[in-house]
Amino acid sequence: MTARIHKPSFFLAALLGLLGIVGISGSFLLDDPVSRWIQDANEGHWSHNPAAEFLSKFGDWPELMLAGLVGYLLARRFRNVRWQRILISAMIASTLAGMTVNISRLTTGRTRPRAVAEQGWYGPKHGDQWLIGEADFNSFPSGHTATAFGFAGVLLFACADFGLIAVALASAIALSRILLGAHHPSDVVAAALISLLVAWVVWFQLGQRGRIDGLVRGSVP
Question: How many Cα atoms sit within 13 Å of 111 on the Cβ side?
């Protein structure tokens, strides 16, 4: 029997994909104006805001995994199946989102805003120098933003009340990276949209359908 495509879902997915492409493309227009605005507001320097530095330092993948693990263990202790599924899915999505953007981040050779080198896209190798792993040339997309939005995205799709708070925190992490000159606005927009897609797939294909229940303790509804 030939599989039937549900047209509304197909068109919705196509529309969201188109909006994502437009959003990422449009975000490049913000890069130069935002960089100038931040430096003008800080007398020619990047921000040294303590809150931004804190979020940038502790808003990365290891800290997200620790928070997710603690939450998962608490949910497991109280045999809360739903939250075990949500938090396992969030950790998976965060990890996959980070891995996905890192493939681009490590090979495009885009300079960070605060880099001393001339701004541009240098690719994985410039002249005789390999740029993979060179932090100043690994800007696009943002790894911090990807892992944060991958985690927050699952919470948003699974439980909107908590998810909106998580998305707000992920947005604050992304903003901190821009203020510190670590990323361009287009870096964080691209990472956020890619990660929300990853989170959507992980939650609706794995978590909600119970395909990770080998890691869940309690009475599965």
Answer: 11
pLDDT bin (cut points 50, 70, 90) of residue 36 is very high
State pLDDT tens for residues 132-175: 989 999 999 999 999 999 999 999 999 999 999 999 999 999 99
Residue 73 near residue 80, CB atoms below 8 Å: no
Domain range annotation of the chain: 60-210
Angle at 151 between CA 84 and CA 95, to 5 degrees: 95
The whole-chain average pLDDT of the chain stands at 91
**Long-range pairs, 50-55, Cβ under 8 A, ≥24:** 51/176, 52/175, 52/176, 52/179, 52/180, 53/176, 53/180, 55/172, 55/173, 55/176
Tell me the residue ranges of DSSP E strands in the chain. Answer: 125-126, 129-130
CA angle 104, 184, 174 (to 5 degrees): 90
- b/e per residue, 68-85, with b = 16+ CB within 10 A? beebbeebbeeebbbbbb
Question: Considering the entire predicted model, what is its pTM?
Answer: 0.91
Residue partners of 180: CB distance under 8 A and separation at least 6: 46, 47, 52, 53, 56, 114
